[in-house]
Design a protein that fits this description.
CATH architecture of the largest domain: 3-Layer(aba) Sandwich
Low-confidence stretches: none
Strand order of the largest sheet: 4-10-9-8-7-5-6
Strand content: 5-15%
Number of helices: 19
Shape: globular
Number of domains: 2
Radius of gyration: 23 Å
Distance between the termini: 45 Å
Structural class: alpha/beta
CATH class of the largest domain: Alpha Beta
Mean pLDDT: 94
Length: about 450
């Protein structure tokens, strides 16, 4: 079988195949919002469709493609590994590539993190951090934040701060308790009984791009130390240069006890996740020879993932992608921030590096407010589709709503964006937001169509 020929032969069937065998509601959603494109090629931050049109990808596989897609250096490394016919996953052995990647990561993570556990995904990394915390502290309670997102497997879902993702999947793992993000008093009350194994927190909450106050995370670390609780930094989305620092906790000089990473660690080629932690924590878990495999992951240290991780870290350093994320991402925020004063629907532009949010809200002018309320009645957060859909259809920019029922559009682009890409984004956003303020107009006519479709979908679900 030649895979390229198979793809060419069956490419036009992709939506039909998913409707029949995978997830028909996903196909229905893509068709409803006009995202049912046929992408045939990808390079760097760009996607190319079957008509030869070029798109700027500000979604990047939910942050997986920090290097952009199909980076040649990572491809070459993966080809070299496959050609070498290395022994892989012997299991009763240890991998040199895993050792080398662990060595490299320990040199890059915050001080005090000396050991690495490899997994297959961010969610699996979170599961590992929860287990390590409970075993090391001999406590069971895990604290997490409202609005936080840590994954969709059962343990990570138990630490999910968004009720939308929890609905229908309970009961959850016992001894998980939430506190508001940014509320130090609530955290201190929750820690007071000294029965909390760990507090898991995203330095910047991904769903909504909610940034903490400057003093929050340092005081969180101090409170956790005071009460014997481990601090888990979930850097699955924010890590590896995304925010203009290698780790987001570096913005606040915070040193966690465990740090979860995944997404872009392999350049988007191979599923991979990891937990960096303090030596004493790992020593408490793997404390005897007969417990050497007490926690593991069958494919966690596979050669392809480890080699891709090494290549990705090399590209980030050689191409100065952390610095580029800080510069270009910061300029995008600076270019768009003045629109808040100009347009009443736009309430905030925020972010760090290549993690950017545009927050919208109810306008004051009567005509806009009436149209807004129609959309909100049909489906909370529907207005944001009036931003993301024109960005795609008119400007060939792929973007996303930051979370369910949110009024936030989120940009999570590759760290490789250049100034031409920046101008492409800024000009497109200005045009789309300006058009959204014209009532009546084509955007609001389209909004009424979306509202009708949302109402029909609700009725069908009922």
């Amino acid at each position: 079988m030649k895979i390229s020929e198979l793809i060419d032969q069956r490419r036009s069937e992709k939506f039909a195949l998913h409707e029949r065998y995978v997830n028909p509601q996903m196909v229905r959603m893509l068709k409803t919002i006009g995202f049912d494109r046929h992408y045939v090629r990808a390079e760097g931050p760009y996607l190319f469709d079957d008509k030869g049109e070029r798109y700027l990808d500000l979604l990047s596989g939910f942050g997986v493609f920090a290097l952009g897609r199909n980076h040649p250096k990572v491809i070459q490394v993966l080809q070299d590994v496959l050609s070498a016919k290395l022994p892989n996953l012997v299991q009763l052995d240890v991998s040199v590539l895993a050792g080398l990647l662990a060595e490299r990561l320990v040199a890059l993570v915050p001080d005090g993190l000396e050991r690495i556990f490899f997994a297959n995904s961010g969610s699996e990394a979170v599961e590992a951090a929860i287990k390590l915390s409970r075993c090391a502290t001999r406590r069971s309670k895990i604290l997490y934040c409202e609005r936080g997102y840590h994954g969709l497997t059962m343990g990570s879902l138990s630490a999910m701060g968004d009720q939308y993702f929890r609905e229908g999947f309970g009961p959850f793992v016992p001894d998980f308790e939430h506190v508001p993000f940014g509320d130090l008093a609530a955290l201190e009350r929750a820690l007071a009984a000294k029965d909390v194994a760990a507090f898991i927190v995203e330095p910047i909450q991904g769903h909504g791009v909610w940034l903490p106050d400057d003093g929050y995370l340092p005081e969180v670390a101090a409170l956790c130390r005071r009460h014997g609780t481990l601090l888990i930094a979930d850097e699955i989305q924010t890590g590896l240069g995304r925010t203009g620092r290698f780790w987001a906790v570096e913005h606040w000089q915070v040193e966690p006890d465990l740090l979860c990473m995944a997404k872009s660690l392999s350049g988007g080629f191979v599923p991979v996740g990891a937990v960096a932690g303090r030596k004493w924590i790992f020593d408490k878990v793997f404390d005897r020879m007969d417990r050497a495999v007490i926690h593991g992951s069958t494919f966690g240290k596979n050669n392809l993932a480890m080699a891709a991780g090494l290549a990705t870290l090399e590209v980030i350093e050689e191409d100065r992608l952390v610095e580029n994320a800080a510069r270009v991402g910061g300029q995008i925020v600076a270019d768009l921030a003045p629109l808040v004063q100009q347009y009443e629907l736009l309430k905030d532009v925020r972010g760090l590096g290549m993690m950017i949010a545009l927050e919208f809200g109810e306008p004051k002018s009567p005509s806009l407010r009436a149209s807004w309320k129609i959309l909100e009645a049909a489906n909370k957060g529907l207005f944001c589709q009036m931003i993301t859909i024109p960005l795609l259809t008119r400007h060939r920019i792929v973007s996303q709503v930051a979370g369910h029922a949110m009024h936030v559009v989120k940009f999570l682009p590759p760290l490789t964006l250049n100034d031409d890409d920046r101008r492409w984004i800024v000009n497109a956003v200005k045009e789309v937001i300006a058009d959204a303020h014209r009532v009546p107009g084509s955007v609001w006519n389209f909004g009424k169509t979306l509202a009708r479709q949302a109402i029909r979908m609700k009725a069908g679900a009922g």
